[in-house]
Amino acid sequence: MQIGQLLIIGFDGTEMTPRLDSLLSRIQPAGVILFARNITGAEQTHTLLRDCQKQVAAPLFTCVDLEGGKVDRFRNVLGPAPSAAEVFATGDRKLFRKHGRVIGENCRALGFNVDFAPTLDLAFEASRSVMSSRAVSADPEQVVAYAREFLRGLGDAGVLGCGKHFPGLGEASLDTHHELPRVEKPWKKLWEQDLVPYRSLSLRRELPFVMVSHAAFPAVTNQRTPASLSKKWMTDILRKRIGYRGLICSDDLEMGGALAAGPIEQAAIGHIRAGGDLALICHHEDFILRAHEAMRREAERDGKFARRVQESTRRVLAFKKKRLARPPAAAPTPARVEKLMRQLWEFGEETRLAMLDLHPITPKPGVLGTPAHHSSRRNPRLLGTPAREERA
Question: What is the domain count for the chain?
Fold first, then answer.
């Protein structure tokens, strides 16, 4: 039984080591996810991902969170990408698609085939301090307009996208990285607002992946169980009522919102049992090994869980056969990296100027220059100082 095909794992370090080699060979995961801690250069990242694939028999999902703005793992390698909110503020659907294409080309050049973006959460006041520029609008139809074009742009570059954080964190005032938020919103409003992006994008099968959040919705489930462990949310609503046919993955099960419901073993088993396909464990090797062993033992003990494992394993492998047929890009040369940096900088400038056209800034008397929050995009070689990494 290929339990590893239900796991996407993260790790420390920037190169293959005997320890990482052993972990990958033993687990045979569905994918790996890299963070800024793993990424120091374009060629280094490509080499690391290539070396990971060498240890795993099935094609790997090579994943990254790259939305632009606060969530940008390539900032110190290629330069900063505009946030979703900045691009959305231009009102230009061609730029929405270009945002996806530029980010997708950067991902693919460095060896990634999955970008956990775009964010489909609605930009309500309740979550403003948590989501900020990651959410584009409180109007679900406008969120769909941006996300649809962004996903098409990723696809143009040969990268798979992911809608997140189902069923929606727009009304969540707490950060799921640290706590388990309770969203006290009735079903009817969720269906008419937060779930609209998932409903619309599922109709045309435009979402390769959906990432499920660690927020609880007690008005819907009558429980404090996070959506990532909820059969009602993943199976009854996302699969059956909405008709979603892609892959369902959890947000990082090491987050406080998931571990508040139980230990990592319980979280991983609970996600798969409730209808998830892929459990993300993004950092600690001990958690990965414990989750893998617990799922293996549970499958041996419980026939119903074993059938659930087989169902998701088949789905993951069939998806890979269909969607990962394209060979990976060659290692990026210095000239290619320079071109990507230039392209990203030019896109940042194009976005900034489009925003200024729509929202002109009147300089104060005696004040000259570009707004400070755009100054880091003046030159692709000025990458700035490392910022605190936002987890997605």
Answer: 1
Q: For residues 259 and 265, what is the distance between their CA atoms, to the nearest angstrom?
A: 10
Closest CA to 41 of 374, 343, 336, 392: 336
Per DSSP, helices labelled H in 171-302 are: 187-192, 196-203, 218-221, 231, 256-259, 264-273, 285-301
The CATH number for 234's domain is 3.20.20.300
Q: Give the least confident one: 16-20, 172-176, 237-241.
A: 172-176
Contact 9, 33 (CB under 8 A): yes
Distance from C-alpha of 210 to C-alpha of 196, rounded to nearest angstrom: 14
Which amino acid is residue 169, in one-letter code? L
| Class of residue 160 by CB neighbours under 10 A (exposed 0-12, middle 13-18, buried 19+) | buried
Residue 211 DSSP SS3: strand
Report which secondary-structure segment, H or E, holds 249. strand 247-250
DSSP structure string for 175-201: -TTTS--B----HHHHHHTTTHHHHHH
Specify the pTM: 0.90
Residues with a catalytic annotation lie at: 177, 251
Q: Sorting pLDDT into bands at 50, 70 and 90, what band is 162?
A: very high
User: Is the residue at 333 inside a domain?
Assistant: yes
